[in-house]
Amino acid sequence: MSVSELINSINGVADGGAGVTDEERASLLLACDKLRSKLEGPLVLRLAIDMKIFDVAAAISRPDGYFTTEKLASETGADPLLINRIMRYMTAISLFQEVGPGKFKTTPLSGIYVTASPLAQGIIHMTSQMEIISALPAYFAQNGYKNPGDAYDGPFQYARQTKLHCFEWIATQPKLQHAFNVIMGISRSARDQSWFDYFPVSSKLSVKSDSDTLLVDIGGGVGHDLIRLKEKKPSLSGKLIVQDISVVIESISDLPTGIEAMKYDFFTPQPVKGAKAYYLANVLHDWPDKQALQILGNVKEAMTSDSFLLINENVLPETNVSLFSASTDFMMMGGFSAQERTENQFRTLLDEAGLELVKAWEPEDAADGEGRRLLEAVLKK
Known about the structure:
Blueprint: H1 3-15, H2 22-39, H3 42-50, H4 53-60, E1 66-68, H5 69-76, H6 80-92, E2 96-100, E3 103-106, H7 118-133, H8 136-142, H9 155-160, H10 166-170, H11 174-189, H12 195-198, H13 201-204, E4 213-218, H14 224-232, E5 239-244, H15 246-249, E6 259-263, E7 277-281, H16 289-302, E8 308-316, H17 323-336, E9 341-342, H18 343-352, E10 355-361, E11 371-379
Parallel strand pairs: 4-5, 4-7, 5-6, 7-8, 8-9
Antiparallel strand pairs: 1-3, 2-3, 8-11, 10-11
Helix pairs in contact: 3-6, 3-7, 4-5, 5-6, 7-11, 7-17
């Protein structure tokens, strides 16, 4: 059974729970508790990842299959008692198996949290965000329970005791910056359908000459989306440009021919004028309206009557938002004083920026009213 099928089955039981017997209910609760124990514990996992416990365990496992607490402590340089307490938790969630006092074996799940694993970087990123969320009650108590509206004066600055924006602060933390880059790569590349799978690229994305700029990916990280676009649509003519801040662009090691990397701060005038398309993926939800309008304003000034803007974001329904999306909205509020938006909120934001929303494109399997959308906007007439 796939994870999606499991989720559907659980939701089906939850919606029709009246027909479940007491025995079945007890079994279901036990199974859910067991599943929860496997998925929880990110803070302890973060400790184990930071201490490279998973890496060392894989390297020192004996031929007979086990390793000792003493050897693990020696190789990591950590206190043996701390190692023992962490391994106790790792065993409880089945990431290791305890075979005797101070003796452990790896399990099939142990290897997924080695340092090079995207899941390990996900834990690092997630736990760093949890530090901000945990400060929300104190922040709102001090600020009169007003919705934050400035990316430079909100919960993040309160929790980190800094005046820097979240991205600026992360740029000073190489470990967190790396984790963020990895997670952004996953979020952009792991989707079943990319935007160019349901957007009419052939009819809409075309330029007269290879020297013309076809698309500018603003805040595009290390170029994930443009690389996939180039792979999927190799016959496209025109220049493809990925723009991001210096620390991100400098981390790019290689790009396919036809894709150019450019250092750019989207709060400054857009240097590429008259491109056919400008593209913002997962950008605007990082900014409250105050700063989002500045970003859109700089795009607008670079556009011509032949240009259009594509915004690739999660779009909330007007009612009955899912728990996942509501949780993501809180993450945006905590880290960036920002928000996830409904289509009407995007329409209003674009209108204020001098742009007009002409269509919200969506994948064929899009959820009703919720999920990722590709918003197409042009200069307001």
